[in-house]
Each structure stands twice: as C-alpha cells, then as structure tokens.
Amino acid sequence: MARLFTSHTAPEGSFIMRFSAPLTPAQAELLGEDVGMIAALAAQALNHVHGADIERLVKAFTSSNALDVTAVRYLKHLEDGLPRGEAAGRAATALMHDWADAVLNSSSRGDRA
Question: So which domain of life are we looking at (predicted)?
Fold first, then answer.
C-alpha cells in the first residue's frame, strides 16, 4: 500500500488525515475503521438495491487492493477539505463504480463476476 500520511489538527481539536506526514497510530486506527465502514456500507447498499450477493461483495470490497484504493481515495477527499461523511460517501461511490465496471467487463467477456 502507498504510504498514508496525515497533517494538522483542526481547530476543534480533531485531526485531519492527509498525505503530508506519517499517520499516527490513532489516525491509522481511525482510518481503518472508516475504510471498513465504507466497504461495509457499499456492500450493503448494492445488496439491498440490486440483490448482489453480500458475501461476494464483502470479499471483493475487503481485498487488500480495494481497501488500499478506498483508503487513498478517502484521504484525498479529506485533504480536499470535504467533511468525513462526504469523503466517505464519495469513496464508497467510487468503490461501487469500480465493482460495477468489473461486473460489466466480466459480463462482456462471458466471465462470472
């Protein structure tokens, strides 16, 4: 995984995760919790709306590559100044788009996604 970084403390005392300095253990733990929640909610949404197999979604969304990309996207959105909820929503949306693209590509090749 690309080295994740963090930056400064926000005025209200909470920290803002960024790419500019190494993550502290507390920030790494929070990042892990946030990315886990992003993956879980994206899987639940696709299962609920489209009936996609939840076990397959969770397996896909919790692969090392998917978690790495989601973490980087989430941190980038935070760095751009988005609130945590909006940053998480955008990272989840991108994860679902990646999944949909993979399904479409597999379908066009005759594979099973």
Answer: Bacteria
Do the beta carbons of residue 77 and residue 92 sit within 8 Å?
A: no
Torsion, Cα of 55, 61, 65, 69 (10° steps): 180
- Structural contact between residues 95 and 42, judged by C-beta atoms closer than 8 angstroms: yes
Residue 12 three-state SS? coil
Are 39 and 70 in contact by the 8 Å Cβ rule? The answer is yes
pLDDT value for 1:
36
Stated pTM of the model: 0.76
Please identify every stretch of the chain with a pLDDT value under 50, giving residue numbers as ranges: 1-15, 113
Would you kindly state where each structural domain of the chain is located, as residue ranges?
25-109
**Which two tokens mark 93?**
């949306």
Per-residue confidence (pLDDT) for residue 17, from 0 to 100: 56
Q: Are 66 and 60 in contact (CB under 8 A)?
A: yes
